[in-house]
Amino acid sequence: MNKADFLDWKRHPVTQVVFSQLQERIQTLQAMLGDSAGVNPTQDSRYSGAIQAYKDLLLMDFEGDEETQ
Is residue 57 scored above 70 in pLDDT? Predict the structure, then answer.
């Protein structure tokens, strides 16, 4: 995959729907965390980790050689 392929994938309608769903999950988890933070620290950590993982997916950028297939 090269950078152009990666950018095409990020702009693809299916990818955009997936990204939209990830955004919704982030918002839901943030709301849940805001409502119950401190009640269950283990669950708080899971929510925080999930939020960060979803954000990492949304913010990913092309890394690698331009001509890698």
Answer: yes
